[in-house]
Amino acid sequence: MTKMKSIAFLGVILFSTNFLFAQENDKGNIVVGISIGPNFANFINSEAPHKINMFGSDIRPILIDASELTKSVAYTDYKVSLLKDVLTGISMGIQLEYFIKKNLSIQSGIYYESKGINLNYSNRTVISTTPGDIASESLDEKYKIKFNNNYLTIPILFRKYLSKKQHVFFEGGIYTGYLISSKITVQNKKTVSEATRVLSQYTFEINNHKDTKKEYTHIFDFGFSAGAGFIKSISEKFIFKTEMLLNFGMAKLDSKYNNEYLVEPVSMPGTNYSKVLSTNYFGLNSNSKNINFNLTIGLGYKIGK
After folding, report:
1. How far is the C-alpha of 55 from the C-alpha of 243, rounded, in Å?
2. What pLDDT does residue 132 have?
3. What is the dihedral of CA 199, 74, 148, 212, to 10 degrees?
4. What would the pLDDT profile of 165-184 be if each residue is shown by its tens digit?
């Protein structure tokens, strides 16, 4: 299956590269361009059905007191937000636009895009209160997870101009992406305190985990794109352009796990231990998908007519 995906992806690259350079010699309505701008990314469906991340439990289940499962160092009752958890990055690339007719064109190119999530969650929960006493135990949670997944993407977009002067346009189509690097930082810090006294504090973290073998995140991404933009001629050959594009991923990100979660009681006299296996996308949903919005500006050069 992986070989078939690789062959298909290489086919898209070869087709697009051939399309990109062969058309330069065609004296038709063609525009080549470059663009750059900010990229705002997040994950769709990122909240896991269980919020426990026990790194390595897929190889060896972890033994834990059953009564403390939901207070585990690796558990956080985080809340995700499509707007608050945005990861800001960059989008840049080269494009080629070929006009099928006067106000209708097809565009392709090669882009570098940073995608991921930047989740920061904090919460305080009262876990016990002594009757008649103002002192109470509270649990403070701070959870940080940051994914930097960088891709080379190739879109195929149909662009429709709204007037003969070809200023304002709408566009839509598909894209495919290839993962070139992945870096994950996860931190979960918990503090149990009573009034001003700290009772316990512990941290679960994976610092700067570089997925060099790309074993946790799918190498290929694909999805749908929709956007709009504006073009202004600044000379007979050169144009200025600005574009906003929204990309909806259709491929799940996790390439290794599928939200597995298993709790089995362990028969040990005088104890209440359980064997726990919990694997997901570093605490997020294994079925998470990419979503990103980029706003770019650039220059184009008209070839031919």
Report:
1. 41
2. 54
3. 120
4. 778 999 999 999 999 999 99
Q: pLDDT-based confidence at 272, cuts 50/70/90?
A: confident
3-state secondary structure labels for all residues of the chain: CHHHHHHHHHHHHHHHHHHHHHHHHCCCEEEEEEEEEEEEEEEECCCCCCCECCCCCCCCCEEEEHHHHHHCCCECCCCCCCCCCCEEEEEEEEEEEEEEECCEEEEEEEEEEEEEEEEEEEEEEEEEECCCCCCEEEEEEEEEEEEEEEEEEEEEEEEEECCCCCCEEEEEEEEEEEEEEEEEEEEEEEEEEECCEEEEEEEEEEEEEECCCCCCECCEEEEEEEEEEEEEECCCCEEEEEEEEEEEECCCCECCCCCEEEEEECCCCCCCEEEEEEECECCECCCCEEEEEEEEEEEEEEEEC
pLDDT band at 273 (very low <50, low <70, confident <90, very high): confident
